[in-house]
Each structure stands twice: as structure tokens, then as C-alpha cells.
Amino acid sequence: MTERANAIASKVEAFVRTVIIPYEKDSRLGFHGPEDALVAELRAKAREAGVLTPHILPDGSHLTQRETAIVLIKTGLSPLGPLACNTAAPDEGNMYLLGKVGSAEQKTRFLDPLVRGEARSAFFMTEPAETGGAGSDPSMMQTTCRLDGNHWVINGRKKFITGAEGARVGIVMARSDEGACMFLVDLPDPAIRTVRVIDTIDSSMPGGHAEVDIVDLRVPADQMLGASGEGFAYAQIRLSPARLSHCMRWLGLATRAQEIATDYACRRHAFGKPLVDHEGVGFMLADNLIDLKQAERMIDWCAGVLDTGSLGTAESSMAKVAVSDALFRVADRCVQVMGGTGVSGDTIVEQAFREIRAFRIYDGPTEVHKWSLAKKIKRDWKAAQG
């Protein structure tokens, strides 16, 4: 299995380094993410190179999580790599979810265009904090759904919805009398109105992060995923792999930042010698090497747990905390090593810093994961007491 993944990853790495990295200065890189025309162009090149959606095999089967890690790390070597190879969030997580729980008809209509790289998707869960809506605690969900004949009618407001602008497939979470529900929605839909695209610290995701109003959205009953009240169970299926794939992609970007900072430190001379020969700089790069290797091993460990069939909730929380914090340290040191160049747009190091800083919030901030782990520690202690 590893040989298969290594062969795919080698093709992906060669493609990202030779074809995609030159696009990092493209004029179509907008403040709220790359324009869809650029994404389409990059995906056409990935399709031609045979590296589009590389984690899903031609027969529709999925690489194991450990194999996926080997491949997705390579797509992350450029901020544009996951977009080009169709391994980016939220599409990668949405494809995984639909592959696991979608009906045959739902897969044909909603999943297949995503796998082919012909459409983007959005996951409508997070709600405005100002109104007490769902964030890290999805049980606070205020968006409602009610059955009306053979349709469900959905109303609510969602916030920080990645890629909503320009998406063709939506997964909308709402609350019925039975509990949380998930719905598949064709986009755009006039009942889903963008209030604004929010200015955020990151800029790698097409469509940015939108706040939207959902007013009397009518969804046919056969576009519900599963049954009413099963939404949280399906969210758990998506949750751990999505957390971990973030770790994979950002490890690739942090690795690239380390390469750039190392090259700078070895070429740049100050005070009579290369920067790397100054202990303060050399130690920062050495610390980065340690953090990168520890992040890689943490990802591989958690992926192995998921490959057993476990939901891996606690393990993915641990991995998400450890990896996001480690990669942030790496990106921060790379900026520091490069001085003024590090805070400029001359390289992707400053973007790596911004993207990875945001990653420490996305898919649950560090503090929420630690709180969840602390609750598990207490439960385990109580169980041990008999």
C-alpha cells in the first residue's frame, strides 16, 4: 500500500513544484481567495498530468488515511496545490462524507462532479456568535428545518462558510424536532443569499468565507443525508478525517516555508558569515526540523487509528492541537529567520504564516480540543475507579 501512495505522491510533488508553484504570483489571486477561472485552469493541468483527486482511485475507492497523508502533504507544498489537485477543504472533507453516507442517486448527482473537479462545495454549519449560534459547539445550532409535504423548509443564518461564493454543491446543517439534519443543496439558490464575504487573515480558499442568510430554502426530502436527527452522527464521520487532512496539507506548506527559509539563511551573509552559521538562526531551523518530524509522526499515528475504523475523536483532537501548534512555530521561525523578506510578499512564507495561524482556529480552536480531552481524562478516571 505504501508503495502505491509513494508513487502517487511522487507524481503530485513533481507536478506541484514544476507546474503549480509558478502560479503563486498570478494576478488572479484575489484578497478573498483565487478566482474560479484560475482554479479551473489549474485543475485542467492536474487532470492532464494525472494527479487530479489523487486520493480517490479510478474505481471510486479511497486511499487509506495513512496513504492519503503521504499524498496530501505533497499537494500542500504550494498554497495552490490542494486547489489544483482537488484535495482542498472543504471539498475533500465533503467528498469523504458523501462517499461514506450518500445514496447512489446522491453520489451521482452531487459527489461525482466534485470528484471530477468540475464543481466546488461548501459546508454550511457555523453560525454567527452575535446571535448565540453554533460554532465549536454544534448543539447551539439555531438554523431550523421543518417538513412541508415532500420538501424541507430551512431558515437561518450561517457565518464563515468557506467557498460559499461560487460553490455548486452545498451541505446545509439545520435542526428539526428530532435533532440535527444534513441536506444536499444545488447552488446557487436564491434562498441562500450572501450577506458579505468576510475579511480574514487567510487567502488561499476560493470564495473566501461568507456570511449567508437562508430564507425559506426548500429542499426535496430525498436530498436529506440519512434521516432526520442523524446530522451529528454524520458530522462525526467527517470530523476526524477533515481535521487530519488539514494537518496534512499545512505540513506540506510548512515544509516548503522551511525550504525557503533554509535557502535564505544559507545564502544571506551578515556579520561576516552566512546567517545559518549564527547559532540563533541555526537553532531556529533545527527546531523547525524537529517540529516538522513530530508533526509528520503525529499525523501518521492518528491516520493509523482512523484506518482501524475508529472515529478517532480524541486522537484527531490531539493531532490537530499538536500539529497546528507545531506548524505555527515553524512558520513563525521562518518569518523570523528571513527578517524583512519574511514579512513581505516576495515569498510564500508570510502567506504560510497567515494560513497556518488561521488553521489553529479552523476545525476547532486548540482550547476546545484540550477541553474535550480533559473531559475524556475525567471520564476515564471515573471508569477506572469502578
Automatic annotation (TrEMBL):
Residues 2-118 form the Acyl-CoA dehydrogenase/oxidase N-terminal domain. It holds the Pfam family Acyl-CoA_dh_M. Its cofactor is FAD. Signal peptide: none annotated. Residues 229-376 form the Acyl-CoA dehydrogenase/oxidase C-terminal domain. InterPro entries: Acyl-CoA_dehydrogenase, Acyl-CoA_Oxase/DH_mid-dom, Acyl-CoA_Oxase/DH_mid-dom_sf, AcylCo_DH-like_C, AcylCo_DH/oxidase_C, AcylCoA_DH/ox_N, AcylCoA_DH/ox_N_sf, AcylCoA_DH/oxidase_NM_dom_sf. Keywords: FAD, Flavoprotein, Oxidoreductase. Residues 122-194 form the Acyl-CoA oxidase/dehydrogenase middle domain. Belongs to the acyl-CoA dehydrogenase family. Homodimer. This is Acyl-CoA dehydrogenase. It comes from Sphingobium fuliginis (strain ATCC 27551).
